[in-house]
Design goal:
- By secondary structure, this protein is mostly beta strands.
- It is 0% helix and 47% strand.
- It has no helices and 11 strands.
- Strands 2, 4, 5, 6, 9, 10 and 11 form a 7-stranded mixed beta sheet that branches. Strands 1-3-8-7 form a 4-stranded antiparallel beta sheet, with no helix packed on it.
- A hairpin with an 8-residue loop joins strand 5 and strand 6.
- It is globular, with a radius of gyration of 13 Å.
Length: 126
């Protein structure tokens, strides 16, 4: 089992940047594929980005609406996954969640992830 704690959310102006972190407990962090999701008020939770267990080159996947703006990365030595968010837009406003899944494949369905953090609020003002 793994516990996830997100941090780094906040209020930022449009065009600004934020870096989210997700710290995982346990000694098996490197065995999990990690993902970031977000949920805006009145909307369903949606996939943002994911990274494979090794985090090596070519092992990331992004939703179209964040490509070129967001970067997911991980540091297995620190049991942490990151989401660097640049060129933020008001429509990026949401609660952002990190999630872990035991399988090695990168998946976009929220129901395919086994563990979730509590979320961190990101608000982008216009």
């Amino acid at each position: 089992q793994v516990q996830l704690v997100e941090s780094g959310g906040g209020l930022v102006q449009a065009g600004g940047s934020l870096r989210l972190s997700c710290a995982a407990s346990g000694r098996t962090f490197s065995s999990y594929t990690m993902g970031w999701f977000r949920q805006a008020p009145g909307k369903e939770r949606e996939f943002v980005a994911a990274i494979s267990r090794s985090g090596g080159s070519g092992s990331t996947y992004y939703a179209d609406f964040v490509k070129g703006r967001f970067t997911i990365s991980r540091d297995n030595a620190k049991n942490t996954v990151y989401l660097q968010m640049n060129s933020l837009k008001p429509e990026d406003t949401a609660v952002y969640y990190c999630a872990a899944r035991s399988g090695y494949r990168i998946m976009v369905g929220a129901d395919l992830y086994d563990y979730w953090g509590q979320g961190t609020q990101v608000t982008v003002s216009s």
